[in-house]
Design goal:
The protein is 32% helix and 24% strand. By secondary structure, the protein is of the alpha/beta class. It has a single domain, classed as Rossmann fold, CATH 3.40.50. It has a five-stranded mixed beta barrel with strand order 5-8-7-6-9. Helix 1 packs across helix 3. The protein is globular and about 50 Å long. The relative contact order is 0.21. The chain binds hypoxanthine (HPA). The site of hypoxanthine (HPA) has 13 residues, from strand 5, strand 8 and strand 9. The site of hypoxanthine has 13 residues, from strand 5, strand 8 and strand 9.
Length: 278
């Protein structure tokens, strides 16, 4: 058997030995956004370290677990903490959790992250609906023999971010009076932040925000036919756009600032998404 698939199935069996919970929506909480987990009516928590062979994050503040439970009555699995490519894991490990959540039943993947704002009209603390992404600066997680059990060799990528889910998030933002930017998210590998010249390049290429996650997960989930949506928390303006050097600490500060808006946006959107997949 393909070793990537074999590992995935091992993790799947391990999760199923611990819980038979079937989520409709999978939520990935980005850097600084882990506090959202408090909104979940928890049924079961599963630290990543208890899933055999599961990649465990080494970043402070990312110590991870799956949280199974309900958001407004919608069954969800939530990842508090994710692994990043820059930690040194093979890219197939980075996307293993997204694949696993599809296998346990999630039909919708709600990706969130902290990102640097590239668009000059963005401010730290803004939320951005991801309309599309730039993938070509990170390794493609589908490289290697295709896993036919998961999807096709050459998946279409013209509508990765589900239009109906985007509309739900847009409508919810309006109802909740949450100001919502929209744009294209580009994944770079990190872990160093970008240079000002990198950021000028990203702007020319059409990126509105940059970060170190999300796109590879979206590629793997799209391969498996999940419906995907994403929201970035703009934690800082990207390199060269202000006089300040970038620090990991400001990511947390901006996330804290955005937390009330983020919370109401995600909760109300998930409630509506739950109706979609019923
Ligand atoms: N660049 C890359 N990743 C990030 C940034 C940034 O400026 N901010 C938060 N994640």
């Amino acid at each position: 058997m393909n070793p990537v698939f074999e590992k995935l199935m091992k993790c799947y069996k391990c999760v199923r030995e611990k819980t038979d919970f079937v989520p409709d929506v999978a939520i990935v909480l980005g850097s600084g956004l882990g506090e959202y987990a408090k909104q979940i009516d928890v049924v079961f928590e599963l630290p990543y370290s208890e899933v055999e062979e599961f990649p465990v994050s080494t970043v402070p503040g990312h110590a991870g677990k799956f949280i199974f439970g309900y958001v407004e009555g919608v069954p969800v699995v939530c990842m508090k903490g994710r692994v990043h490519y820059y930690e040194g894991y093979p890219i197939t490990d980075v996307v293993l959790p997204a694949r696993l959540m599809k296998l346990i039943g999630a039909k919708i993947l709600f990706l969130t992250n902290a990102a640097g704002g590239v668009n000059t009209s963005f401010h730290a603390g803004d939320l951005m609906l991801i309309r599309d992404h730039i993938a070509c600066f990170a390794p493609n997680p589908l490289i290697g023999p295709n896993i036919d059990e998961l999807g096709v060799r050459f998946p279409d990528m013209s509508r990765v971010y589900d239009r109906e889910l985007q509309e739900i998030i847009r409508d919810t933002a309006k109802e909740q009076r949450v100001y919502l930017q929209e744009g294209v998210y580009a994944q770079l590998t990190g872990p160093s932040f970008e240079s000002p010249a990198d950021i000028r390049m990203m702007r020319v290429l059409g990126a509105d925000a940059v970060g170190m996650s999300t796109v590879v997960e979206a590629i793997a989930a799209n391969h498996m036919g999940m419906r995907i949506c994403g929201v970035s928390c703009i934690s800082n303006l990207a390199a060269g756009m202000t006089e300040n050097p970038l620090t990991h600490e400001e990511v947390q500060e901006a996330a804290d600032m955005a937390a009330p808006n983020f919370t109401s946006l995600v909760t109300e959107s998930v409630k509506k998404m739950g109706q979609l997949v019923k």
